[in-house]
Amino acid sequence: MHTAAAALYPQALATSITLPMEILQAASQMASVSEYGASQVRFLLAAQSTQTMTLSSGITLQPDISLADIPSLDLLILPAIWRNPLPSVRVARDWINLLCEEAAKGTRICSVGTGSYLLAEAGLLDGKPATTHWNYFEQFSRRYPAVDLKNHHLITQSDNIYCVGSVNSIADLMVHIVEEWFGRPIARAIENQFSPEIRRSFRAAAYQNEADSSHHDEDIAQAQQWLQSHLSSPVSIDLLASHLQLSPRTLNRRFKHATGMTPLSYLQSLRMASAKDLLRHSNLAVGDIAWQQGIQDLSYFSQLFRKHCGVSPLKYRAAARGKLFSPKIPMRP
Q1: Containing H/E element for 185?
Q2: 111 near 96, Cβ under 8 Å?
């Protein structure tokens, strides 16, 4: 059972709470099939008091628990703050030390949009990469000069601290978390269910302070960076192992221990993420996209794409881009 919570405050943007909640509940329902119907995710709403709260938008929510009484968490979400975040930051000073306590426990904390102000105010972003809503870049930089603001990234990660710049980006991050918790098939089903045309993989969208900050194997981090920079080149495990001065057997063992994937599976995941971006945002032929991923055999590329994404490249492009174009308008006679 995974436990997630969202902090509630009056200026919270409701969609940055309900969208993660719905994604996790959908994933829980899918995962529960193999667990005899038992729920796999518990999602709590936490506020300073358990009294009903009416948000600035007029939406009323009932907290499940007070912030002081939250249980051990796997994920804590700080929703986006509607309009100027500073009044909410001032009110949050009564409970902001909770964020430092949760971070010290290893809880994954994720801010949405200007929710990152709360992390910065708590000092959790000093010297670390972060992002926020684009409209507040200048204000954020002036108020928190010690934070390494990444204007060109919608997602940042530093150890267990995540920032996303928009509600769409929290959906991207939640798909990544679903994959970590429940595996790729469920994550793929969730991605397809929640509007594939706006999805971008976590690896493609995120700025991370390490190649993969969930492990501390420097050789494997270097291997991940090397694979990322050789997507379009023919790659062999022997070549990578030689570059790292490791045996292929040692490389495979350490890579899987650090990432949960073999080097080849990791490379395929990177290539499929890149291919999905090109299918969404370019008019390149499928064969050209395959070639850019270092795959010369179009049939093999299509099989690999279907394995990772559940549909053919052309069907994915049609689904992902269908809503990006206006319907044809009949011409006047």
Answers
A1: helix 184-193
A2: no
CATH H-level, domain 2-205: superfamily: Class I glutamine amidotransferase (GATase) domain (3.40.50.880)
How many Å apart are CA 104 and CA 172, to the nearest integer?
25
Q: How far is CA 215 from CA 30, 220, 254, 257, in A?
A: 28, 9, 11, 9
> Which of 325, 5, 16 lies closest to 166 in space, CA to CA?
16
CATH topology of domain 215-322: Arc Repressor Mutant, subunit A (1.10.10)
Strand partners, 206: 155
For residues 137 and 149, the answer to whether their CB atoms sit within 8 Å is yes
Is the whole-model pTM more than 0.85?
Answer: no
For 166-222, what is each residue's pLDDT tens digit?
887 888 899 989 988 988 889 888 887 775 544 556 665 666 554 444 567 888 888
With contact defined as beta carbons under 8 Å apart, do 51 and 63 qualify?
Answer: yes
Helix (H) or strand (E) holding 270: helix 263-281
Bridge partner list, 44:
5
* CA 225 to chain CA centroid, nearest Å: 19
